[in-house]
Amino acid sequence: MSTLEKTTAAAKAGGHPPAPPALEASGISKAFQEKRSRLQVLDDVTLTVGKGEFVSILGPSGSGKSTLFHIIGGLVKPDAGTVRMNGADVTGQQGHISYMPQSPALFPWRTIEDNVLLSQEVQGKVDKEARENARMWLSKVGLGGFEKNHPHTLSGGMQQRAAFLRALLSPQELMCLDEPFSALDALTRSDMQRWLLDIWEESRRSVLFITHNIEEALLLSSRIYVFSGRPASVLHVIDVPFPRPRREEIIEHPDFIKLRRELSGWLREEQLKMQGAN
Ligand SMILES: Nc1ncnc2c1ncn2[C@@H]1O[C@H](COP(=O)(O)OP(=O)(O)O)[C@@H](O)[C@H]1O
Ligand SMILES: [Mg+2]
Q: What's an example of a GO molecular-function annotation for this chain (predicted)?
């Protein structure tokens, strides 16, 4: 049944047509022109994030994941394909997503608090309440007392937490996180995962999350798109079956272990293919 037929059927049945997804990226392809050669990076990628869904992209390093985020954020134009948000075509337009880039990208001349409040400031929404809210979050992630510091005085992990808060407190509905915990040591990473899981289960923001950490993807996501090596295409789509709220104990569940093994096999295979090609 086509989307239109489904909508009509829902309307005839007396229900409302389903709300359009927060994000629909359809048929995205992209090549970069190098001096003498063309590097095909994305090949016909289609994915969807429903309202309030937590969706992950899991793929080998160098496959094209960050490039897809740049396209969704309107920083890079695709050669083919469209980006729709809430049903509207926003291909090539900026400002529609809250984005945490792979490197924290904090402004060095702004304090941590002012960095965290940046997106709200752009939208003219920083009042006393917003500042108090930002301070509350800063202390929740262990940055209490560092509000007036400048980024260079903080460790990499602390900068990453500040960048994450900036994305979390941005007003846009869809939050795109590009490997947000990659610079953290294992313990902090596990704390941050736990913390993100709690926040998400409470707030149900629409999230698109890039990672190459399999356990992280299984723990957090409702759905996982497994990317091939470059040029990236969608190899598998996994609906993660574990009920919410989730607890760390699920990593010991036989189904979790089975999925982890399967995903790890696919990723290894793609990594080897890419090494063979380079
Ligand atoms: N602006 C660009 N110009 C040329 N090549 C690029 C550009 N951006 C990314 N690439 C190349 O595209 C490939 C995929 O990069 P990226 O999307 O960062 O992968 P991932 O995030 O999956 O590690 C890499 O080989 C990278 O060098
Ligand atoms: Mg990347």
A: ATP binding
Supply the range of the domain harboring residue 37. Answer: 19-96+172-278
pTM (global) more than 0.90: no
Centre of ligand 1 to C-alpha 230, Å, is: 9
Clarify whether residues 140 and 216 are in a common domain. Answer: no
Q: Which amino acid is at 109?
A: W
Give the list of residues 6+ apart from residue 249 with CB closer than 8 angstroms, or none: none
Residue with tokens 């489904």, as numbered in its chain? 6
Say if residue 189 is in the same domain as residue 260: yes
Q: Which ligand is nearest to the CA of 178?
A: 2
CA of 138 to the centre of ligand 2 (A): 26
Question: Is the CB of 67 inside a 6 Å radius of any atom of ligand 1?
Answer: yes
Domain count of the chain? Answer: 2
Given 113, 139, 171, the domain boundary residue is: 171
* Residues ≥6 apart with Cβ < 8 Å to 22: 49, 50, 51, 52, 53, 85, 86, 173, 174, 206
Name which residue sits closest to atom 24 of ligand 1, judged by CA: 62
Please report, for the domain that includes residue 90, its CATH number.
Answer: 3.40.50.300
Question: What pLDDT digit, counting tens, does each position of 61-108 carry?
Answer: 899 999 999 999 999 999 999 999 999 999 999 989 998 888 778 999
Q: Which atom of ligand 1 is nearest to the CA of 33?
A: 4
- Which of 149, 171, 193 delimits the end of a domain? 171
How many other CB atoms are there within 10 angstroms of residue 196's CB atom? 21
